[in-house]
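Q: Predict the assembly, please.
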Amino acid sequence: MSGTAPAQSTHPAAHPAVGVSPLMRPHYPVGIVGYGAYIPRYRLPASEVARIWTDGKGGLPVREKAVPGLDEDVATMSVEAARNALKRAGIDPALIRAVWVGSESHPYAVKPTSTIVAEAIGAVPNTQAADWEFACKAGTEAMQAAIGLVGAAMARYALCIGMDTAQSRPGDALEYTAAAGGAAILIGPAEESLATISASYSYVTDTPDFWRRPDDSYPSHGDRFTGEPGYFNHTLSAAKALMEALETSASDYTWAVFHQPNLKFPQRAAKMLGFEQEQTAPGLLVGDIGNTYAGSCMVGLTGILDITQPDDRILMVSYGSGAGADAFDLTVTDKVLERRDGAPMTRDYVARRTEIDYATYTRYRRKLRTK
Amino acid sequence: MELPRHWRLQNQRYGLVGEVCDQCGVKLFPPRDVCPSCAEPAHEQYTFSGRGQVYSHSTVYSAPAGYEEYAPYTVALVKLDEGPMLTAQLTDLGDQEPEIGMPVEMVTRRLRAEGEQGMIVYGYKFRPVMSQGS
Amino acid sequence: MRDVSVIGIGQTKVGEHWTTSLRHLAWEAIHAALADAGTEAVEAVYVGNMLAGALSRQQHLGALIVDFAGLRGVEAVTVEAADASGGAALRQAVLAVRSGAAEVVLVVGVEKVTDMVGASGTTAQVAAADADHEAVHGVTSAALGALLMRRYMHENGVELADMAGFSVNAHANAVGNPYAMFRRPLKASSFVKGSMVADPVNLFDSAPAGDGAAAVVLCPTEMAKDMVPSPVRVAASSLVTDAPALHDRADPLVLAAANTAAGRAYHAAGVVPGDIDLLELHDSFTVFAALQLEAAGFAQRGEGWTLAKNGDIGPQGRIPISTCGGLKARGDVGGGTGVYQAVEVVQQLRGAAGDCQVPNARRGMTLNVGGSGGTAVVHILESIE
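A: Predicted assembly structure:
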């Protein structure tokens, strides 16, 4: 394969400065060459869940959530997001060396989703393909790996997808929010990027706040334990560590986007980090589409990229139960202006909306026992 | 299990990849290797844009085996912008009534699954062209 | 080439024959036809069948049926062309006698659709379409009919109620046919209220699938005159194909195979459409009746429906169709249909159609269509002076 830099006599990672800081920086500068969102068209209002399970008297963590149609799954949704990313990037898909799909709702337990996506977008056969798993940060985890792959000049492009059709037990608190959607991010050389990524950081501990055992249909969660020890500890720690290493603060960023399990958590985290509401507004989609799990903060990022201006700086922090958080520092380039009209905007998908009732929802999500 | 026959057709099903006749230049979908217009070989691949119009449509209430879980669903004859016509389902209609002449675009969706344990067959469907710039 | 005539016919009632197997149905029709012909000296048997492989898990019908019918050892083979299997089998028999390869030949068209229940029938029928490019998208035979009907109505400004005449005529005619599946009239006002099968095709628009078998015995016309009092000669036989997939046809609203097959048959018989006294066509859906009237030259493109609306298709009309109920009311016998059509025309030409009789019928035509139009078989039959 061409495009690979010649092997160096001294490995740059052997340099004494590397590894002192926990920050991860690629050897060659990289960025986002193309991006694409996907959100299915059906919406279940949270009030419908409340109507069935609390007599309409419970609180509502979001307004409504996106529900996939009967013929949709993480593979089909990833294909559309990937096509949108490629339309914006305008590159030859044969130059993609990795197609990585992060999700906790892959259509097969064993058999990659990523091969379906790679085949559909014309990236086969000279590519790597893999499915990633780390609850809601499976997609950003793939992004960090892609930064490494392209940053080491092993590949010119790597495609990372965070996409979910999240499952939730009928009547569970998660049923209000567990939604479908996500985004595809194409990582490539900084020179070709619409947003460069200077550095990322990952904060991980073993914290069992949410899980699903192999034979279960629905995940279990630690209720209030998911908050402080889970979401907030990891999200805030990751954000702070990144900003500290980069010597930045909230005011240095035009925009910020966090993992969005509900409306409250990301707003509180943003506030605790010193961000104003306006900085998070364009990426805060959870109220309209629900928690799209592995897609959540990535589709929030595409929402920001749709409206951002050159030189804007963006902080993105994902969170995955189990637990960990990935933080990224991005700077928008002028290429965003010429590329973003190449595919439907995130808001176009949010606006494309057909409301369904709880009965239709149970059918679409195959919750009805028919045998 | 009809695994091999579905696998064999993935290229055309996922990407709407058809052919151009070497002789008369007519664009073919589904690909058939022999041009029906001039009976000459058609080998050159051609990827269709995925844009077209509904030529006719029907909603199926009584579905064949393997499709019951999706019924009622809408099937259509779609005339592609490049010329050929194909048979496909219309999806994501929401509250919209399908209409003859409706502009549609290709999406990749589940066509069916071979039972609970079997493989999932993916392929082209069409939806009303998504409005942009809302 | 020798002239060929029909010397014997037989048929079973069409319906749900829960206690009767495929081979038994075939035997009943064969037995009746041989008795009618007054001979058992059959040299070859052609079986028309479409669904036995899928619905009865039975193929190799040639050997199976002649063995069961007491004709073990006789040359026998199945002819398959979807719903046009019966017509195609009849044509093979005509060719065998014409060529001199055989003297007395029997054709039996048989279908057994009630060996399996549930969605299997719908699934088996759609095997006549393109499996890779039509059936995989969940279309059914009814949906293919519906795609044609929707477009036909759109292009020609036709309302659903305008199509009622086809089903009303078929049901009215079936009342007089003891072999018909539904011997009850249908009101035009009920037609538009049928439960939906594949929009806009409803229950009263589509033919019901039924079990049944029909048989015809052929021999050279020279021989026939000495064997039976009123042989019916085969004035023309033609079979033409088209793309099996609807989407592969240049103009889906033109049944090109039917058009060419009818044209060839008229030429061979030396007649024009106006010389045809009755037409048994393949009215599995009303739109097919309209399209076939157009293809066979009885109406201009887009005007076939007006014949139903104007009463031209009744027993006393300009071109009587479905005189014994057609597929709509006699029942859709799948691959057996083409042979039923021939039996019905022979009955008419003998003047033996009872309450279904078309006055002064001397020349009748059958039009048997496979799938959504991929195969068309036409036969013109004439009474001998």
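The interface with chain A takes residues 10-11, 14-15, 69-70, 89, 91-92, 94-95, 107-111, 120, 122, 125, 130-134 of chain B (CB under 8 Å). The mean pLDDT of chain B is 93.
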